[in-house]
Amino acid sequence: MALGDAVLFRQRSMEGMAGGQLGAQLSLSSVPHNMDELVQRTRVHADEAEEPAPQQDGETVAYLPPNLYLCDLRHDAGETSTSLGPAESGLVSKWRMKDRMKTGCVALVLCLNIGVDPPDVIKISPCARMECWIDPSSMLPLKAIDAIGKNLQVQYERWQPRARYRVQLDPTVEEVKKICTTSRKSAKNERVLFHYNGHGVPRPTVNGEIWLFNKSYTQYIPLSVYELESWLGTPSIYVFDCSAAGMIVNAFCDRPDYGGGNPSPHPAPAMKDCILLAACGAHEILPQNAELPADVFTSCLTTPIKIALRWFCPRSLLKDTLDPDLIDRIPGRQNDRKTPLGELNWIFTAITDTIAWNVLPRDLFQRLFRQDLLVASLFRNFLLAERIMRAANCSPQSYPALPPTHQHPMWHAWDMAAEICLSQLPALLSDSNLEFQPSPFFTEQLTAFEVWLEHGSSRKNPPEQLPIVLQVLLSQSHRFRALVLLGRFLDMGAWAVDLALSVGIFPYVLKLLQTTATELRQILVFIWTKILALDKSCQVDLVKDGGHQYFIKFLDSDDVCAEQRAMAAFVLAVIADGHPRGQSACIQAGLINICLVHIQTVPGAESQPEPLLLQWLCLCLGKLWDGAPEGQAAYRDNARTTLTSLLSELNPEVRASATYALGTLVKAHSESTIPTETSSVEDEEDEEALTSEREIARSLLKVINDGSPLVRTELAIALARLAIAHNRLFRAAASAYLKPPSSMLSPTFAASRNASYGYTQQLAFAGSSMMDQSAGLRVGLEGTTPPRPLRPVMSSGSLPSSGNLHGSPSELGYTEEARSLGNGPASNGVSRSWRLRGEESGIYVQCVAAVYALARDPSPRVASIGRQILRSVGVEVVVKPVRTNSGPGHTRNASVPALPPTPLPSGLVRSTSWVASTSGNLASTFRTPPPSPPSRPNFLTSPMGIRRVSSMEQFSSTASTPRDMGRIPIRISGEIGIATTSPVPRSVSATGLADGSGVPVGPASLSMESTVPTSTLYSWSCGHFSRPLLEPTHEDEDEVLARREERERVALDGMSKCQHSSVSKVSDPISSWVTLSEMGTKAVLLHPFSPLVCCADEKETIRIYNYEEEQLVNTFDNHNAPDKGVSKLCLLNELDDSLLLVASSDGSVRVWKDYTQKDNQRLATAFQTIQGHKPGSRGISAVVDWQQYTGLLYASGEISSITVWNLDTELCFATIPSQSDSCTSAMSASQVHTGQLATGCGDGFVRVYDIRTRGMLVCAMKAHSNRVMGIDFQPGMDLTKMVSASQSGDIKFLDIRNNASPYLSIDAHKGHLTSLAVHRHAPVIASGSSKSFIKVFSTSGEQLSMVRYHNSFLGHRIGPVSCLHFHPYSVLLAAGATDSIVSIYAGEMHSR
């Protein structure tokens, strides 16, 4: 990763992800014509960012490496397993209206009484007369009211043509009751609209009564709206077009059962289902302006374009030239957007939607403008009514109440659009061949939206034009640009997707999947990617409408780049995620075969996006066949071969995804696949499935030593599925693998153990009735003669090798007597034995060994899953703390037990090393517990404290009470206890004994599917698509670059001073810190750019101390496993946000982020660098070193090789044979030249390696007669000179060009040398002794200073020195001692 990418490290969630951006920023002046152009712009931009910053000289290149490591998103997540996948419910899913409704019936009640004015109304002259655009005085009253009623129905049918309409003209109370009850009966649970025109009756009363007529029309009869509501029921909507209509709204709101007088902000449920629209306020009368119709409110609600133009025309610049009567002759139809009338209606809908969306709360907007089509249309038109009627001093009312909108700026845009249309009207009417010129409204609004995208963010107000963009999608001419801008908006984050969904984008983009336009494919896939990244619930809609076919065709297209295919694969994975119908639809469409073909054809070129595609093809496959038998059965073998090839990919996410996909091929269910006597037809299918799953397991074991916890977690989950599906076979394998040899209790074996090992681990094997009785494993036998202990094969390896497991059964640890098949009574209805060949049973032993290794993984999550698997096969891990020799009475509990060594990559070799940890031997107990505990525990105790349960060889036949039958005994601190809940369900046979297999039998058995650990890989991977992809934003970009530049300046200044100055002494103490550690200090490290010192003690407690402010910054435990011991501390990415690497003595490495933040440190990664150790050694005693420039981590110890790990790919890069019979005791990687490594061995040899050469070994020399305690390259650019020191106290200056003898020797100490430190740039070295001395020498051999006493009043002697470290850019020396005091000494420099 280049220096220019330092600000992009948080975007590197996978290899090549930074290069997989889909689009670049669109300028205001031009829009790309297709998505390819959009991608090309981004790639150019990304290439510019990839250019490395120019370096000053070769030395700067070496000492200021530009690379960053372990800064990908998978390392940010750490061990938290944070789920970033699509939400099934929550914030984003609120956009979906769960109670979408429609208006089924419309009741129109008109009380006009034409010719008779109501007594409380005084009309002006001239006054408004028009009702539904009909002048009542132009015809007879009866004909007029009938025509008005029919016209009103036609006006409503424009908005809801499928509703059932009923009209009552000048009705009585009984007629209104009838129309209301009939409407409710017809509508059932749908909404009913009640329209009341009261222009011919008095105003409503204060009590909320409207007026009707008696049969003879001689009296006005009041009708309470409460009674009206009881007839109509809910849900309903009321339109009251009469003077003082606000009285009715007030009466509704004041009703007690509607929440009247209740201060609660939550209205009653009945009131929530009622919507009211009133023409004016409680004390207002309707406008009588002759320019407007009498029912201006109704006209606004039902004929908005006509009334809007008639109202606007006298107020526009065209008032003197345009005849208002021409408005009725506007050509076109309202549903044809290419005509003038259709475009005006389209613009009006966009503007009113925009006004409502910008002024209303989101939930209210959803209810009024998205729940019901008729209600949405009425409320859009209500906004127009407010504008027009407020100009006439009337204030329309509504419930729910809306904020004022009559002065919203968008009305000016409507006026302009109307004026442009009206200006063309005379010419259009006079010449039918004249083409209508569309309004620039939508183009201008898209430009305004684009301007907002240039400067907007989540902290600013949302774009006003979003509803308009929605409307633009209906137009082919603007569709592509609108989709590109919409995609850019969705790319801004989850809040943007939420806004777009709440405004109603979903049905539009769902409908667009039916289009065949090729230019829209890429941007549509991108938009759906952003939607599904936040809301998984859309999968149902996609499958229902056949939308999955669109993405399958896109994925299989030839002209699609890799990152766009990855998006399509992601969409299809979400469709199949936990959705059986989606799985079935995709499988039937051939998606599995398409994914497998693309995995095989993805080129291994240098282009970056391909890992992302491979990752999502694997995840898509996993989601397709997880729980889908048709997918697993049809493609198991072909898929296994294809996916196995990805397990060696350089990208960890690809390896993890392939492991996940392989794991989901295993059916995670109880062992229903084991053949029985009644399964005759299905036997072959079951046997084939089991064979295939065993091959899957064999493939999965290839990643047992992967450096990425992401991969090992998926491996552990896959093995957990296998352990559940093959539980009995796993139990038999566990019994075979974990059964201790009889020689365990011999004095010879006891004498070989490490008596100082401080923790006794006890592994209790629960239910071991399945033992090897033939050439393989025999399942389900009880009542037979107790089997003999299984004899392990002695080997120096840690696990059985795959090669050996294909051989004879004795190589698997089975006796020759087990070759003959034993016959015995079967349990659980199994009347015949079921045999496995040696190589078949061997895979289960390999799996158990792998699980055993995973249970002691450095990653807490991996270890937790490993222990869970052990429990599922009957192995209980109980850690018993015992007294250590670190101090009197000191004990320490550990939640992570120490387990046998991690298996070697080459295979699995059964050996006695199952009792040896990497840093000491284990005292282990394996037992088969009885169904209920005995009254007194009976142990066979070895001289070294190894204890075995007397019932280890066979089950106890002691009957147990029903209360205790389902419990598994576990050992806690030497006592037998009963577990209240069993991790492994047990069954009871007819004899009352617990079923030894531990597999649930019968209907009362517990389901085992729930025990499968949950994988977070898929949901975490989804988080990539929820982040910005088109225009990655980095709010801290300037800060990161400024910090990097400042640190480079400080480093260069420090390097110059160190290289051009001579050091006279290094003995001035500037700080001392008592760590209060009981174990002293094992490793110390000075931060290069902050006054911080990091130290670690033998218990692996990490402490960060500010030596200028003299305060503790942070403290935390590296891990809580019983094996303790620190080998080294290193800093990764020291010029940026540095990471703290802590190497343990057992070969495990843990890298911490935010280690300087109090209690906020996070584990970025953890893995085991070394597997196994030499026979006879007590532990690994690992030594490691880090090389920043290459990203390589070197590790060795009590092994015969040096492992080289690439922390970019998190794979073992190489294995260098140490070519020595002795252990590697010291190591140093060159920080100047790539690939250079120097090691010191226990026999005094010094070797130099170059990993770039074929032989790797450059030279070897016998520099010392004793163990090498420290080695390093001399300061400067000369890689041929080194410094080494041995335990006997001599320091040798070596030159590999003359490896016959050192060119300079110093007898620094008379024995007991413990540590050596060489400054990175200054010509100074320091050595420490257990005799409480620190000596500082120049590179010419001159002793500069010596430290023996603390700088205190009493001048106490310093403690035995255990570790030393120089500051890289200043002459500061940190020293740690066994007395738990860390001291820092400064040096004096003089220019030379």
TrEMBL record:
A biological process from GO? positive regulation of cell growth
Q: Where is the composition biased (Polar residues)?
A: 795-807
Note whether tRNA processing occurs among the keywords.
Answer: no
What keywords are assigned to this protein?
Repeat, WD repeat
> Which is one GO molecular function term here?
protein-macromolecule adaptor activity
Question: Would the keyword Repeat turn up in this protein's UniProt record?
Answer: yes
Tell me the ranges covered by the Raptor N-terminal CASPase-like domain, including all copies: 100-253
Looking up InterPro entries in the UniProt record yields:
ARM-like (IPR011989), ARM-type_fold (IPR016024), Raptor (IPR004083), Raptor_N (IPR029347), WD40/YVTN_repeat-like_dom_sf (IPR015943), WD40_repeat_dom_sf (IPR036322), WD40_rpt (IPR001680)
GO CC annotations on file: cytoplasm; TORC1 complex
Region spans: Disordered: 781-831
Enumerate the transmembrane spans. none
Species of origin: Marchantia polymorpha
- Taxonomic superkingdom: Eukaryota
Name of the protein described by the UniProt record = Raptor N-terminal CASPase-like domain-containing protein
Q: What protein family does this chain belong to?
A: Belongs to the WD repeat RAPTOR family.
